[in-house]
Amino acid sequence: MTTVKARRRAVWFNRFMSSMNAIPQLPPMGAAALRLAPLAPLSFVAARFARSLGRRHPALFARLGEEADKIFLIDPTDLPLAFRLLPRPEAPRLEAVRREAAGSWDARVAGPLAALIGLVHGAYDGDALFFSRDLVIEGDTSAVLALRNAIDNEEMDLAHEAAALFGPFESLARRPALELAAFAARWTGVALTRPGQGTRE
Over the range 166-200, which residues count as b (16 or more CB within 10 Å of their CB) and which as e? Predict the structure, then answer.
């Protein structure tokens, strides 16, 4: 009887620890909304975002060297779409694509949206995500490593980068962008700002 109780406690403890360490998943309602959303506006915003990153962080893509000619498929597994990244320093491109129509790529990085964004913000360790199988890497692993190192070196904050899309009105857009990011984090569990820097001016 004692052994049975001990086993039950062990099972409960393992489940509890697993839930504590689980990567947040985008709520099904959000994924369903994106499934119905047209890709053209998403690709337009993604393209502007890539160009803005290239201007604000010129070393981000330049640091990739020969790997900058590779095609990266960034694949959030809890979304009904993926993103194709062509990180050429002179003309970086990012476009939204349906997963089934993603086309060819040199390297694929797949995982929950929270994990992928957490990597950008330094909230998760890439090696730990890989060994826990929350992150899947396919194709050219050296290209993925180069991209990861380049992103780590820039210490970007995506909410601030989104505000930068408003150009001369960036300072006015920053606070609404941070508030929207905080609301999205509460609803989805996806942290859209770098830990400890969400209120950075």
Answer: eeeeeeebbeebbeebbebbeebbbbbbbeeebee
User: What radius of gyration do the chain's Cα atoms show?
Assistant: 19
What is the residue type of 93? R
Dist CA 113 CA 31 (whole Å): 11
Kindly list the averaged pLDDT for each block of 10 residues, start to end, along the chain of length 201. 52 37 71 80 94 94 95 94 95 93 94 90 84 92 94 90 87 84 74 63 45
Q: pTM (2 decimals)? A: 0.78
CA distance 45 to 43: 5
Give Cα 85 to chain centroid, integer Å. Answer: 12
